[in-house]
């Protein structure tokens, strides 16, 4: 008796994904996760260093012309951006009475205004496609607060309002806008902490450990996938329970 022919499996078309700040830490893990899925990934950085297999695009998100040029490069090389992951960010930590206007402006312009520029440019192409995913990388600090990080916390909190406004504006075109809010993650930024500081932080986290960057990437790829097609305006915490209730 002959075997029944196997039914052909549906093919998932690779999407064009743009990850900003994707040369290290969380951004690199996100880019690598999309590459592993077979997506076409572009990574923007200020100094290069995209993971192997990704299109490496130089871009300073504080420069509107550079943002437009980066999108033009990605569109020419890979096609219109279907998934935007706005991850690029900086810190300039100090107590509020010592915080200069420049400390404030640099962080807001990179983390918040830069994300606005990216989302605005991405939305043009997504509206033409009538589909898209916009994902902002925020922080538990944006909702929980942190001494010495008034500028950073404000910038990361602002991403929530931005995402929810975009969700309402763009939802009718099947474009979602969501936020991932990591807690303490094992990256170069946390590696500079002393052992005592790391131990003190772990006592605040119900799961008692730092996140691996790949765990943040998993939340991002889920939001960008078919299973999250009805999720928009959401804040997904990946913080080990540190900020629960916020």
Strand and helix map with partners:
Blueprint: E1 16-20, H1 25-36, E2 40-45, E3 55-58, H2 64-77, E4 83-86, H3 101-129, E5 132-137, H4 141-144, H5 150-170, E6 175-182, H6 188-191, H7 195-204, H8 213-224, E7 235-238
Parallel strand pairs: 1-2, 1-4, 2-3, 4-5, 5-6, 6-7
What is the residue-mean pLDDT, rounded to a whole number? 92
Find the structural class using helix and strand composition.
Answer: alpha/beta
CATH superfamily: NAD(P)-binding Rossmann-like Domain
Total helices: the number is: 8
Please name the CATH architecture.
3-Layer(aba) Sandwich
Q: Looking across the biggest beta sheet, what order are the strands in?
A: 3-2-1-4-5-6-7
Uncertain stretches = 7-11
What would the principal axes of the Cα set say about the shape?
globular
Distance between the termini: 62 Å
Main sheet characteristics? 7 strands, parallel
The Rg value, from CA coordinates, equals: 19 Å
Helix content: 40-55%
Total DSSP E strands:
7
Strand content: 15-25%
Number of domains: 1
CATH class: Alpha Beta
CATH topology: Rossmann fold
Order of helices and strands: EHEEHEHEHHEHHHE
């Amino acid at each position: 008796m002959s075997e029944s022919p196997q039914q052909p499996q549906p093919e998932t078309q690779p999407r064009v994904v743009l990850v900003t700040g994707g040369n290290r830490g969380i951004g690199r893990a996100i880019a690598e996760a999309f590459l592993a899925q077979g997506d076409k990934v572009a990574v923007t950085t200020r100094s290069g260093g995209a993971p192997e297999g990704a299109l490496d695009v130089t871009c300073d998100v504080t420069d509107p012309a550079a943002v437009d040029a980066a999108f033009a490069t990605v569109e020419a090389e890979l096609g219109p951006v279907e998934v935007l992951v706005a991850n690029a960010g900086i810190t300039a930590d100090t107590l509020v009475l010592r915080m200069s206007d420049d400390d404030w402006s640099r962080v807001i312009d990179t983390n918040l205004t830069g994300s606005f520029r990216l989302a605005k440019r991405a939305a043009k192409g997504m509206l033409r496609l009538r589909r898209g995913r916009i994902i902002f990388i925020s922080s538990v600090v944006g909702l929980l607060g942190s001494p010495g990080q008034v500028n950073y916390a404000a910038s990361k909190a602002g991403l929530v309002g931005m995402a929810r406004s975009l969700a309402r504006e763009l939802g009718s075109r099947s474009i979602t806008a969501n936020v991932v809010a990591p807690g303490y993650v094992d990256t170069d930024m946390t590696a500079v902490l002393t052992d005592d500081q790391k131990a003190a932080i772990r006592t605040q986290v119900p799961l008692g450990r730092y996140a691996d960057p790949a765990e943040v990437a998993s939340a991002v790829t889920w939001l960008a996938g078919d299973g999250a097609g009805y999720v928009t305006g959401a804040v997904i915490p990946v913080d080990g329970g540190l900020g629960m209730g916020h």
